[in-house]
Structure formats: structure tokens, C-alpha cells
Amino acid sequence: MTYTSILTEIRGRIGIVTLNRPQAMNAFNTAMLTELFDALDVYDNDERVGAIIVTGNEKAFAAGADIKEMAEATPFDMIGQGRVEKWDRIRTIKKVVIAAVSGWALGGGCEFAISCDMIVASETAKFGQPEITIGVIPGAGGTQRLARLLGKNLAMEMVINNRTLTAPEALQFGLVNRVVPVDGYLTAAVAFAEEIDARAPLAVRMAKDSVNAAFETTLAEGLKAEKRNFYTLFSTEDQKEGMKAFIEKRKPNWKGR
Predict the structure, then answer these.
(1) What is the pLDDT of residue 215?
(2) What is d(CA 124, CA 70) in angstroms, rounded to the nearest whole number?
(3) 96 membership: H or E segment, kind and range
(4) Cα separation of 137 and 223, whole Å?
(5) 108 is catalytic
(6) CB distance 114 to 145 below 8 Å
(7) Active-site residue, 111 included
(8) In this predicted model, what pLDDT tens digit does every residue of 57-91 receive, in sequence order?
(9) Phi, psi angles (nearest 5°) of residue 218
(10) Which of 103, 108, 109, 242 is catalytic?
(11) CA–CA distances in Å: residue 211 to residues 20, 206, 217, 218
(12) 56 catalytic, yes or no?
């Protein structure tokens, strides 16, 4: 497809989606959200793609939502547009999605990044939820995910008092996986994605599902999901190949089935 607000490329086996509204610091408008989730669906169903990266530019991953679209909206307008419901689609992506973040990740930009499975941040990355300064609160998962990722107190400070986390702070508090120099953050994210792509594809999918179950359910339900996924993998060719390769002291040849 031809997109107007994003760029797409496949680098090796890594699908890359680049947010491309630099004039608005990549703020999410309706068109960008529609294109972004369409591209994610395409890559999720493309056998040539083993993992997905979403990125912006060095100055901004995404600086929130396009306020001009919402300034005069009524509750019924917002509900009718299903704006925040669009974000639920990130949870349906089966492949691993990595956010490669440099510069500002604010509001919806922060919410999207923390909705991804992992985050590679440049040294200049800054994460925040400044919605309180314009009279609203995060609406696409920020209050819930930040509380689970960072704990109540720090999440409260970010949401209520507009605290921004620098890249080193985000690493310290476990919000990001790694911090790298700004001139190589996308290269580092691609290398990270290639490491994941080298794993057994079905096991990666089951692992993602199991960790998400821990994030979204009770311990008892999470343990059920883990056991189900663990046993299911013993029906795959990759499980037989992986264990055989371990015994034979060689590199496994994954088939994804």
C-alpha cells in the first residue's frame, strides 16, 4: 500500500515501520494510526518478516496525539471515532514488536512504546504522559501499563505531576531494555530483532503470549496459560528439532511448524 504518514521497509527479515510526520513531531492523528496498525497487520501476516520494529526519528518517536483533532470533540465524538480503541490492536500482533525510541515519546507516543514488547532507546529518549497539562489523562493504556511496569508511586508522579523519565532513568526503572548512542539506535534495534528472529518462531510466539498473561491476568490464570503453551510446543517440529540439535551439539534448523 501507499502510505502518507508512515514509511515501511523490510531489512533482512525485520519489518520496520517509521512514523513520518516530522512537521508535527510524529504526533498521532487518525490517518497515522490507521496506517500504522495496517502496516503492523501486514508484517504480522508476512512470512518474510520474523520481527517488527516501530520507530520515529532522532528528535521524536512520537510527541503524543494531534491535539487539533480533539480540541473541540465531545465525549460522543470520541466514542464514535473509537480513537483509543484503535490501540487495542497492538495486543493482537503475534510477532514481537520492538519500539526504537529516540527523542520525545510523550502521551500517545509513550503509550504506544510501552504497548510494544520491548524498547530500545537512544541516549536522548524521554518518556512522559503530559496529558494532565491540557486537562485530560492518558486514555490509551498509560495509567494502567505504567503502574504495572513502574509501580504505583512513579506512575502517579508521571501521570499527575508530568514527570518525564530520561533514557537512563527508564533503563533503571525497567521501562526499556537497553540504551544506546543516538547515532546507532535503529541499528541496535535491528540487531536485537535479528536475535529474536533467530529463535524458534512458535516458541517465541508462545513465550510472548505467556509473559503477556502474567501482565494481564492473575497468577493462577497466568500459570494455566504457561502450562498450556509449554505442552502445546511439544506438538511442533521445532521442539523435536531443537532438542535433537541440543543433544547432537549443533545449531537447530527452525521450520516454524
Answers:
(1) 87
(2) 29
(3) none
(4) 33
(5) yes
(6) yes
(7) yes
(8) 999 999 987 777 766 677 777 777 767 777 788 88
(9) -75, 165
(10) 108
(11) 31, 9, 10, 12
(12) no
In the chain the domains, ranked by start, together with CATH numbers, are 6-197 (3.90.226.10), 201-247 (1.10.12.10)
- Round the average pLDDT of the chain to a whole number and report it: 92
Copy the grid coordinates of residue 31: 490517518
Take residue 15 and report the three cell numbers written for it.
519489518
Instruction: State what percent of residues in the chain have pLDDT above 70.
Output: 96
Which three cell numbers mark 41?
Answer: 497487520
User: Three-state secondary structure along 32-99?
Assistant: HHHHHHHHHHHHHCCCCCCEEEEECCCCEEECCECHHHHCCCCHHHHHHHCCHHHHHHHHHCCCCEEE
Instruction: Note the residue count of the chain.
Output: 257
Cα separation, 257 vs 252, in Å, equals 13
CA 158 – CA 166 distance, rounded (Å): 12
Judge whether 195 counts as a catalytic residue: no
Q: Are 53 and 96 in contact (CB under 8 A)?
A: no
| pTM of the predicted model as reported, rounded to 2 decimal places | 0.92
Please choose, from the candidates 62, 14, 25, the residue with its C-alpha nearest in 3D space to the C-alpha of residue 192: 14
31 or 103: which leads in pLDDT: 103
Cα 176 to Cα 20, 114, 191: the distances in Å are 23, 8, 16
- State how far the Cα of 255 lies from the Cα of 173, in Å rounded to an integer: 37
**Residue entry with cell 536485537:** 192
Q: Which of 131, 170, 207, 213 is catalytic?
A: 131
Quote the CA–CA distance of 145 and 54 in Å, as a whole number: 18
Q: Which of 60, 99, 111, 189 is catalytic?
A: 111
Cβ-contact 95, 50 below 8 angstroms: yes
Place of cell 541516549: 123
Which one of 27, 62, 65, 167 is the catalytic residue? 65
CA–CA distance, 9 with 16 (Å, rounded to integer): 5
